[in-house]
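User: My advisor, Dr. K., asked me to get a structural model of this assembly before our group meeting. I'm new to this, so sorry if the format is off. These are the inputs:
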Amino acid sequence: MSTAVRRLRFIAGYFKLNLAMAMAYRGSFLAQVFFMAANDALLLFFWWVLFRRFPAVAGWSFRDMVVLYAASATAFGLGAAFCSNFLGLSRLVSEGQLDYFLAAPQDPFLHVLVARGWFAGWGDIAFGVGAFLLAGDGSPWRLIVFPAVVLCGAAVLVSFGFIYGSLSFFWGRSEALSGMAFESLLIFSLWPGEIFPAALRLLFFTLIPAGLVSHLPVRLLARFDWPLFLALLAAAAGAVCLARFVFRAGLRRYESGNLVAMRD
Amino acid sequence: MGRMMMWRKIGKYVAMARQAVRNRLAYPREILGRVMFLALILFVYDRLWTKVLGERGDFAGFGHAQLIWYLLITEAATFSFPRLQDRVSTDVKTGDIAYRLNRPASYLGQLLAEYLGETLAGAAAISVPGAGLAFLLAGRPPDLSLVHLAPALAALGLGTLVSFGLTASLALTAFWVEDNAPFFWIYSKINFVLGGLFLPVEVYPGFLRTLAEILPFRLIFSAPARLAVRFDPVLLIRTLIAQAVWAAYLLALAWLIYGKGVRKLNVNGG
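Assistant: The format is fine. Below is the predicted structure of the whole assembly, which you can bring to the meeting.
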């Protein structure tokens, strides 16, 4: 069996396991999904009030904002539901909890990436897909483009979560810094890029790639453009490679720890 | 003699509040993280209002600087309030409540003293750098002066009592149910919308504005912040009266829930 097929089966195995865990606590799972979806919908309340008074903000309408939230929430939800370790990698590193993954025969990057899922991520996915269907024009082309662009957004989000979390390998305890960096990425991905100065927009395609997570996907959903889509695809693949490179470089400096911890 | 007894009684709660102030200020990293987060939020909203309102525009009478300072005050209040639910829930789950009930001070009184102390420390720690940031971004709002700030601070103080009454009433449900976290999730969302965390409730459309004005949540956030950035003596009097009435009602409710709950309580652990 080729390495690629083995890895795909390994990923599929973990995904199945995460789904089975979610289904084992069905009541709690459904409550978390409902609350998270309602939480996301309420975040749009501010924009709803604003757009009642101002028909357009930097060229954006309320419908555009709903699509922006749909793309961001679905990208985050996909990452959280299947690869939620990107949210807490910094803590895993500084508490020496990577030992389990290092002892396993799989590639540690891939293993840490897919080892855990967060149920509430399904709530983000439910909100995102629902909001997109409600706000969109329902054309079949957009229905094909949406999954493709949000998967790219999810890849960028998870990769940068890993890159920020990997700072702990180099700088010791840096949960606050990596948390702040990730929070900035999430916040900026929920705002129209056009309201920010041009210099900052450069950051949105480099250090805080909110442009790749949601701004560009929304632009592609409004008007599809093959070269732009291929650029997004390449950027997402590049982000994953960069995350793997930084993680592996950091792993060489990993010092484990004497904290006795159960893998939860 | 009676007066001395009363001062001694109050003195122990003041000592608890002072301890809570020290506890809150003992984690400067947490405060720094929160200030950075506040800076990010203020920056993003500053960009939005600059784009939407331009140089001299307004949103239902609120200009750029007013909206930024409004946000600073509501965000500072949100940060300052301690998570009372975690305290009560931990006390019940770990059995620590048995020790807290045995102290020669009322449990609810202890919670109130700690709540006020932590709120005061949190507000002071975040307001000073926050005000500097708001000033850098938006300048001083035209109405903000010491004369107007003093009554707004009084409204924030009374709003803190309203907030305590609401959160204590909800937190004490831990005496009956093991996990009351969902109540607080809903409570935080109600505050977001009906408390006016990002916008003064006056700019809301008709029915939502009416609903927000009937309920007590805006008295914690929206009303004091609105008074600070756009002073109105009639609104001040109406706010202070509404806050006093709601605070008295909610504190009595919390007391009632506590009285009923403490008889039902099953203490675990130890």
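One thing worth pointing out at the meeting: The longest helix of chain A spans residues 140-171.

User: Perfect, thanks a lot.
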